[in-house]
Amino acid sequence: MKIALAQLNFHIGNIGANFEKICTAIIRAKAEGAQLAVFSELAICGYPPQDLLEFSGFISATEGTLQKIAELTDNIAVLIGAPIKNSKNAGNGLLNSAVVMHQGKILHHAPKTLLPNYDIFDERRYFEPIQQNNCITLDGKKILLSVCEDLWFDGDKKNYPSNPFEHWSNEKPDLILNIAASPFSFEHPEARKKILSKAAKLINAPVFYVNAVGAQTDLVFDGGSMVLNREGNVVSELDYFKEDFQCFDLDWVKTAKSVPLETDLVFGSSPDVHTARIHKALVLGITDYFAKMGFKKAVLGLSGGIDSAVVAALAAEALGAENVLGILLPSPFSSDHSISDALDVSRNLNISHQTIYIEEAMLAFDSILKPLWPDAPNDVTEENIQARIRGLILMAISNKKGHLLLNTTNKSEAAVGYGTLYGDMCGAIAVLGDLYKTQVYNLAHYLNRDGIKIPTNIITKAPSAELRPNQKDSDSLPDYELLDRILKLRIEHHYSKNELITEGLPESVVLRVLKLLNQSEYKRHQMPPVLRVSSKAFGSGRRFPIVAQNDF
Amino acid sequence: MKIALAQLNFHIGNIGANFEKICTAIIRAKAEGAQLAVFSELAICGYPPQDLLEFSGFISATEGTLQKIAELTDNIAVLIGAPIKNSKNAGNGLLNSAVVMHQGKILHHAPKTLLPNYDIFDERRYFEPIQQNNCITLDGKKILLSVCEDLWFDGDKKNYPSNPFEHWSNEKPDLILNIAASPFSFEHPEARKKILSKAAKLINAPVFYVNAVGAQTDLVFDGGSMVLNREGNVVSELDYFKEDFQCFDLDWVKTAKSVPLETDLVFGSSPDVHTARIHKALVLGITDYFAKMGFKKAVLGLSGGIDSAVVAALAAEALGAENVLGILLPSPFSSDHSISDALDVSRNLNISHQTIYIEEAMLAFDSILKPLWPDAPNDVTEENIQARIRGLILMAISNKKGHLLLNTTNKSEAAVGYGTLYGDMCGAIAVLGDLYKTQVYNLAHYLNRDGIKIPTNIITKAPSAELRPNQKDSDSLPDYELLDRILKLRIEHHYSKNELITEGLPESVVLRVLKLLNQSEYKRHQMPPVLRVSSKAFGSGRRFPIVAQNDF
């Protein structure tokens, strides 16, 4: 039995375009002699469709398209993820199913049972976890069907009345199919491989795993579909961060040797595989946001600092240098090096740039506003005005030229509210919003691996917002190494105040950081979507009430 | 048996302040001779605590406070909502429980079983729906404990293996306690009453219902706690949109007469009870946002249009006229009447105002930007610049004076993207973001019920953004009656494109509106939190991917 794995980049809701891709893959699978073509979870509509699932018109469209796909299965079977109506009059109206089609008909569908409902996942909002026997026989082979987290049972989750692996191994399937839409985070590929390997061993059958690839707003799907033998060794891997298509003979899997892991395959001898992955994820995140929104060109402010330099480099890679416009927006407080460093960025990346002095606008607002508070000293108000003048100019360029504005806020700044809402927090997508400042530095070094893209001076100089004379980030914030350590323990690992202090972190700094983190929920509520690369990004995966007190 | 119902306004995460309120109510209940004091769902921490529930430090704090409350129960029993650790090693780690305390001890807790996970609710994210016998005996009375939606079983939901009412009526309880945190929407009070009445009749026991009151960011809890006799008639109601505390004798309930419904009690002879409720909800929403964020004063732009006039009136009522500052921001495109109408608003409401001409800033940006596109005609770019200059000035006043900026975007504008991100879409909270334009007019009429607050000319003139000469909303948008009808069917009732057309709505308008609605997801993603007054508001209750195609 020959099985085609189709790892494709679907577009949420664009069912017509998704159907075209699926057709092309089925035709190719037939041409390569496959008996079965496998597509990812909810392939038909893209993942996550969110509240589109609540529209009957949307479900009708997926159903109609399933029928059209079934018509292509005269001499091949197809397994594809789709929302299927729950025929039981109880619970949510839909099932997140793996649908099997053959000889023009829908033969069977296997609903996902372990529905994730944490972090960015809301599957219990839409789907019902119906349990049924998910084995089918095709071409004389017994196949266990599963959707993504179904294989993630770890004894700690309870949608199953009992350990499903016992049941499944008793079924003695010839192979396991798992279709997924498993969003990327930089430590996730190892976890995924471990789970699939465990499943192969416990059920004693090879696993064919098809993951989605491509970005959907904030979520990046990294692909990395794979085949594991019954010993739990990976015998083949599809590409990461790209569409891929490969056929495998079931018998071949028995004798195939295990391959080196993705870390070697994709990233060669990189010393920093996490950063290398993050780099690819962010480039794909930018590419797909623009492609799926129908835009080609980007604009961003180039401050001479590290964040905008790194975003410019990623954008040039994602969109082509000719499609990126960097805008220098110096004020009287800008240092000479910030201008020369920004010009170096533009030169290194070969992107076009323009310089726009903002002093005239600053003077206009000073003249307009000074009468309201003639005696008040300058404070954060005037700093914010500068940031907002820059935001206004960048949005004007975006509007007039049809370029999307890239946001350059990093996770450390977003966490403590060190940024101006409607100023430097403007933009269509926050490219670095899930990278702590220290990770931005790592990424800058990585981008320079084959030659300088990020000017050395930008990496070595002390970071500054340059909103008043001689300002430094360190005037307002703890050292980034310390800040990021506290933030990561708090945000990713949910450390309490007391746990942070017990960890040996300075109490006064801990208290200050936690206060800033809580006080700036309102800013993050209005920030652009953040490309998610960690296990806990700002955005829909992290939900806090704005008015809450949070001093725990 | 005497039962005290304590309908209190808790603050999420502010467990110390919540504890103080609870203590005060227990002391009062004792003084009034009650044997049982009842508090709302998750009273101890405020509802909805969201991801605070994922912090062990937060759970420890609630546990410690429960112990402190137990110490007060030497001669009274207390029923209170709190998160309780799930002792079973399966599923989510918490239970959303009704905790019974008596004689210094925690006697029992009843976990919520029907966990809502739709619209704004994410209870399956945190809680496990453990089923157990939720009857206890206190003072010789058998009491059925339930949390909010537990009584909402309608045969269509499936967390219960069977119809729970059969089981419950077999238990023959003497009374039913239901503790809730049921967010307001303008048609919800009737639904709630119907459900509670049905439960009383099916189980054949009186119902004592305690709801939360107060606003938590976007959600308003309207109170309206009540007592129903076993025939399902309401025999007493607590106040709406206010804290309240009342004691009831169980025997009295048997003979008590049913009271008029809330509509009569609270709103007298108002012909438009929905608008009257919305009015109270928005005032409470503003009051509590400011109180819980620690602010006293508000600023807003007064355009001379209806939205800002209505927001100003609501803010003056919520915060006191002396705490509201209206800013007129005329441009060369502003009409005389927009200035005079705005001045009338300020005069009618007795709020202070200032007039700031924005032309100087417009000229500065013109001078800065014109060299970038010397030959380009004016377009939406220049309109957005005006809106953003106004946003910048309002934020500067907010920053310098410590006033919170109120956003005036209505639901119709937000739906079709008829507003400028970082311009008129700025603000801390969107007061009218869940009211269609036609509802804003209804509210304006209602605000004028005892004398003119909203100047008649504002209500009768054609709405305009005044961003170019002679601009009218009707140049860009369908008539608001038609637009709002389409939007409501789409947003609240999930009509598909074809269903809208079948409804007799003009196809070209339907297609245009649906396209605008989909295209402006990115703007709504960055808008302020919206005070929710309908069953489907923009915000966390409506989740759409920004990059999605949506032409169904």
Question: What is this entry, summarized?
Answer:
2 copies of one chain form a homodimer. Chain A is an alpha/beta fold and 552 residues long. Chain A has 19 helices and 19 strands.
Descriptive terms for the model:
552 residues; elongated; Nitrilase/N-carbamoyl-D-aminoacid amidohydrolase; six-stranded mixed beta sheet; homodimer; alpha/beta; Rossmann fold
Structure, described:
Two copies of one chain form a homodimer. Chain A is of the alpha/beta class and 552 residues long. Chain A folds into two domains: 2-267, Nitrilase/N-carbamoyl-D-aminoacid amidohydrolase, CATH 3.60.110.10; 273-475, HUPs (Rossmann fold, 3-Layer(aba) Sandwich), CATH 3.40.50.620. Chain A is built from 19 helices and 19 strands. In chain A, the strands form four sheets. In chain A, strands 5-4-3-2-1-14 form a six-stranded mixed β-sheet. Chain A is elongated, with a radius of gyration of 26 Å.
Query: How do the strands line up in the largest sheet of chain A?
Result: 5-4-3-2-1-14
Number of helical regions of chain A: 19
Q: Hey, roughly how much beta strand do the residues of chain A contain?
A: 15-25%
Tell me the name of the CATH class of the largest domain in chain A: Alpha Beta
Helix fraction of chain A, binned, reads 25-40%
Radius of gyration of chain A: 26 Å
Q: Tell me, rounded to a whole number, the average pLDDT of chain A.
A: 94
Q: What is the number of E strands of chain A?
A: 19
Low-confidence stretches of chain A: none
Largest β-sheet summary of chain A: 6 strands, mixed
Q: Cα distance, first to last residue of chain A?
A: 57 Å
| Approximate shape of chain A | elongated
| CATH architecture classification name of the largest domain in chain A | 4-Layer Sandwich
Find the biggest chain interface.
Answer: A-B, 95 and 96 residues
Oligomer: homodimer
User: Please, how many domains of chain A?
Assistant: 2
Q: Specify the CATH homologous superfamily of the largest domain in chain A.
A: Carbon-nitrogen hydrolase
Backbone structural class of chain A: alpha/beta
CATH topology of the largest domain in chain A: Nitrilase/N-carbamoyl-D-aminoacid amidohydrolase
